[in-house]
Amino acid sequence: MQHQHQQQEILHLTSSACAYLNETLHDLDEEIPGFILALKNTGCAGYSYDLAFADTHVDDRNTFVLTKVSGINFYVQTLFLVFLKGTTIDYQETSISSGIIIQNPNVRAACGCGASVSF
Prior knowledge:
This protein has helices at residues 7-10, 15-27, 81-84, and strands at 4-5, 11-13, 35-42, 46-53, 64-69, 72-77, 87-93, 98-103, 109-110, 117-118. By secondary structure, it is an alpha/beta fold. It has one domain: Hypothetical Protein Aq_1857, Chain: A (Sandwich), CATH 2.60.300. The longest helix has 13 residues, at 15-27.
């Protein structure tokens, strides 16, 4: 059984990220329960963020903690909860690119290109 946490404890969303993620969920042909936020062992610094659509069976797993932020469900891997607490998810658009930006106060170092981090 997963535990539900207050949004301030784990994740924060900027208004642009909230709008983008809500629009993304709304535009899908199928109903998705939310997003999974996890870390992958990869890159020269150690970990990269993985933000993906949650499948309908995510509630059946005991490896995630559910947190609801601005009406959006996020399932955070319990194993990495300590590293993700306080993380802010942002969405930025520039003239040449757009995308999700993750700002994490727990990061100790990042690789030169910014693709991976260490804690």
